[in-house]
């Protein structure tokens, strides 16, 4: 069963990177209540809060740079083969679905519509994704984590 995570308020950038890698990662800034939420949803807590360090199902994030934090988590939980770039919405964590190009014509800039052929949509927040310059930049930031050269 795939591992699920929850980041606290201090780890917003890490949460985004986890989602970019395709990991089910919730986000909360509810302090100690994160433990109850994690238990209820069977999630591993990712935190820099030293008061939570010794709690069960908590991974204390020691590094300060988000990419290094991500590397530590991937190593700790042996997740390298589970990385699925851009399979989750970075805004709300839902799985993305492919969508026909014609369906997004009036929802994206004209230039984008003309330049790209593959699109995905979040069924929850309706955010639309494509493999433009943001995609390429994000892939560069995690490329060393991709064991099979996916891009």
Write the layout of secondary structure elements.
Elements: E1 5-7, H1 12-20, E2 25-27, H2 34-41, E3 44-47, E4 58-60, H3 66-76, E5 97-99, H4 101-104, H5 110-115, E6 119-121, E7 128-129, H6 133-142
Parallel strand pairs: 1-2, 1-3, 3-4
Antiparallel strand pairs: 5-6, 6-7
Helix pairs in contact: 1-3
Your description of this structure?
- With 151 residues, this protein is α/β, with parallel strands linked by helices.
- It has two domains: 78 residues; 49 residues, no CATH class.
- Helix content is 32%, strand content 14%.
- A four-stranded parallel β-sheet has the order 2-1-3-4, with helices on both faces. A three-stranded antiparallel β-sheet has the order 5-6-7.
- Helix 1 links the parallel strand 1 and strand 2.
- Helix 1 crosses helix 3.
- The two termini are 25 Å apart.
- The mean pLDDT is 91.
